[in-house]
């Protein structure tokens, strides 16, 4: 028997039906990442599984029990299903250890001593034993999220549901939370993870689900979804999250705005500081040395910049395409220093199109 079997799940709210028909079977130790545009019901799906939401119709059989049936013991369900939210949801006026002790006493009927022992054990697992007696607001975002994970683990759930566990965190704290999730995957924990973190999804998932139009629009191994998506919407979505695109004809030539947008893309991919700097430098050198002089001369040239991350090793390329203008900006002489800087950060690739230049950003 599968651990979780969802059939024909539908969830309607007044005026919106985020989930039309979801069918999903999850086996023990599977790690499933759920991706998709905003508002497609990713959170709703997780909330239906642990019955924070009541499905409109369909069935969710978890560990042999249909959690949608009338009279289901919801406390029993929540004991087996651990949930971690974007916003941690710790009790601010209780110490870290109390936050972990309480639910064990309330839901599992454990004695305080037993619950405390377990709490310390789980805090050690997420590397935060020394913070046991601190208050939540004395911890960083990443630490709070690790506490939230420890709290869920202390219940010994059969499955863990994560709803964008890293998206409220500063980039510097993302890694520590990702590492905890990674270790859980290695320990064989069954997990459903809603995430925009492609690197994590790629590294640890056994399966990726792309949710759209109220259904599981496409699913497959990480490689299949991220590198070879089959359906149109998946392709468009994956492209959006894996590439940065700026067209001067549409978005203007405001360098600050371009750079801010490029930086936002790099951040959203949790790129290392070094890679992010390299991307920015390459873009800046190309922009200010090839294009700015042309713009200043009043040339009616349009440029499209595309920064793409490809493949498992996240090879980064910056493609620059001009609108077949009579000037070939790439043959223009550029300042020697600029050329040197560019060479140190990127390799120019061969292309057969005159109006296109591709630079692979060095790692
Ligand atoms: N309690 C609610 N009452 C009414 N509508 C709701 C409720 N919760 C969610 N919705 C609507 O259901 C849809 C799906 O919401 P959901 O939060 O599941 O999306 P999501 O995929 O998690 O989005 P995001 O990526 O932004 O977190 C949205 O249109 C949302 O406005
Ligand atoms: Mg959500």
Explained architecture:
With 363 residues, the protein is an alpha/beta fold. It folds into two domains: 4-230, Rossmann fold (3-Layer(aba) Sandwich); 240-361, Heat Shock Protein 90 (2-Layer Sandwich), CATH 3.30.565. The protein has 13 helices and 15 strands. The chain has helices at residues 42-49, 74-80, 96-108, 112-125, 141-153, 171-186, 198-204, 222-226, 232-242, 248-251, 255-268, 273-296, 336-345; strands spanning 4-13, 16-26, 31-35, 57-62, 65-66, 81-84, 159-163, 191-194, 207-212, 215-220, 243-247, 303-310, 315-322, 346-349, 356-361. It has a six-stranded mixed sheet with strand order 6-7-8-3-9-10, with helices on both faces. A five-stranded antiparallel sheet has the order 11-12-13-15-14. Strand 1 and strand 2 form a beta hairpin. Helix 3 runs parallel beside helix 5 (141-153) and helix 4 (112-125) packs across helix 5. The longest helix has 24 residues, at 273-296. It is elongated and about 75 Å long. Bound molecules: adenosine-5'-triphosphate and magnesium ion. Adenosine-5'-triphosphate (ATP) binds next to strand 2 and helix 1.
| CATH class group of the largest domain | Alpha Beta
Strand order of the largest sheet: 6-7-8-3-9-10
| CATH fold-level label of the largest domain | Rossmann fold
Distance between the termini: 46 Å
In which range does the helix fraction lie?
A: 40-55%
Q: Can you identify the CATH superfamily of the largest domain?
A: P-loop containing nucleotide triphosphate hydrolases
Helix segment count?
13
Low-pLDDT sequence parts: none
Number of strand elements: 15
The topology string of helices and strands comes to EEEHEEHEHHHEHEHEEHHEHHHEEHEE
Structural class designation? alpha/beta
Outline, from the CA principal axes?
A: elongated
Radius of gyration: 24 Å
Task: Report mean pLDDT, rounded to a whole number.
Answer: 91
